[in-house]
Amino acid sequence: MAGPSAGGTEPATRKSAIAALALDCGFDAVGFAPASLSEAAREGLQAYLRAGYHGDMGWLAARSEERASPQALWPEARSVIVLGANYAPNGDPLAALDDPSVGNLSVYARGVDYHDVLKRAIKRFARALVERHGGAVKVFVDT
User: Fold this and answer.
1) pTM of the entire structure?
2) pLDDT tens track for 17-34
3) Would you call 68 exposed, middle or buried from its count of C-beta atoms within 10 A (0-12, 13-18, 19+)?
4) Over the stretch 56-111, which tens digit does the pLDDT of each residue have?
5) Is 81 exposed, middle or buried (0-12, 13-18, 19+ CB in 10 A)?
6) Angle made by CA atoms 94, 97, 100, in degrees to the nearest 5
7) Is the Cα dihedral 6, 8, 13, 17 positive or negative?
8) Residue 2 and residue 138: Cα distance in Å, rounded?
9) Burial call 30-45: b when 16+ CB within 10 Å, e when fewer
């Protein structure tokens, strides 16, 4: 989030209001972070990539410099609002593993693509956030 202070409210009060808005918009978790990474976090990302832990997710390595610095994506950014949503099924997703006659998909691959679902939800949240608190936002999923 970038932009002027919203209505002069105290940061703790504003964070509480933003967290409540995120929960009202259907998210299960919300957190706040500065729009910067420590040197240790940046090195951790590079070590992860060098070790090949990203597998065939080439997009992760291809934009590693941007991932290591939120301000590389948006120089004016001061804060990051991190949202979480539980997409676990109602039943035990591991129960089908005991039946070799049944195919099994990873939980995230069941149903509608979570990127689309989350991006719509984040955009709804972002519109309400700007309307209530001002500033400017950029929306990312998996970034």
Assistant:
1) 0.77
2) 999 999 999 999 999 999
3) middle
4) 989 889 988 888 888 888 899 999 999 999 888 888 888 888 888 988 888 878 88
5) buried
6) 160
7) negative
8) 9
9) beeeebebeeeebeeb
Say if residues 47 and 59 touch (Cβ distance below 8 Å): no
CB distance 35 to 91 below 8 Å: no
Q: Is residue 22 a contact partner of residue 118, using CB atoms and an 8 Å limit?
A: no
One-letter amino acid for residue 72 of the chain: A
State the catalytic residues. 142
Tokens 């940046």, residue located: 42
The two structure tokens encoding residue 66: 């941007």
Map tokens 């039943």 to a residue: 91
Structure tokens of 117? 């679902």
Tokens of 26: 């259907």
Q: What are phi and psi of 105, to 5 degrees?
A: -115, 150
Closest residue by Cα to residue 118 from 95, 90, 71, 86: 86
